[in-house]
Amino acid sequence: MTVLLLGDSNLVLLENQHPDLMPVAFGADVESRAVGGAWSGSLRGQVGDRNPAAYDAVVLSIGSSDSHPDYSSSPDLFRENVTRELERGGRWVALVPPGVARAHGPFDTGEVNALIKEYAAVLAELVTTHGGTAIEVRAVTDRLGPAAFDPDGRHLSRATYEALVPQIAAALDTMSR
Which fold would CATH assign to domain 2-175? Predict the structure, then answer.
């Protein structure tokens, strides 16, 4: 199975900090184009001249950075950017962003999470509307509580990845049938 990884630090950290989980989640043939800090406007460059439909699956993690004021994004722009890539075809699995345990200052964690929740809903809707699978990462982080995040309060912990990997593998397995 060939898998293309697109999006943000959630996939980068899985690849870089927990490489032992990569083959369990994605198999052996993985091309990662994900970049830490990516926002939906980054997807066009990550996909480049690749054809998402040529891969057995595309795994996408995006939305947390779009909610950050530095990116001047909006739910409408997010929708436009993600839709553009989904319409290129392929079988998509989205890791829907869960929010953060602690926003970096001077931002209020509650306000940041409210924004992330808005972008997460758009991502889940778009991916499922295009026939893909949306994995609600929040279900895992809510269950794990404080252990769900690294000490920075923004990135996922190994425990979260260990809980997500079987869900990712199951979604990809369903696509390969």
Answer: Rossmann fold (3.40.50)
56-88 burial, b if ≥16 CB within 10 A, otherwise e? bbbbbbbbbbbbbeebebeeeebbebbeebbee
Q: What is the pLDDT of residues 34-84, one digit of tens each?
A: 999 999 999 999 999 999 999 999 999 999 999 877 777 899 999 999 999
The arithmetic mean of pLDDT across residues 16-24, rounded, is: 95
pLDDT at 28 over 90: no
Q: Which residues are bridge partners to 135 per DSSP? A: 95
> What's the CA angle centered on 85, arms 177 and 34, to 5 degrees?
85
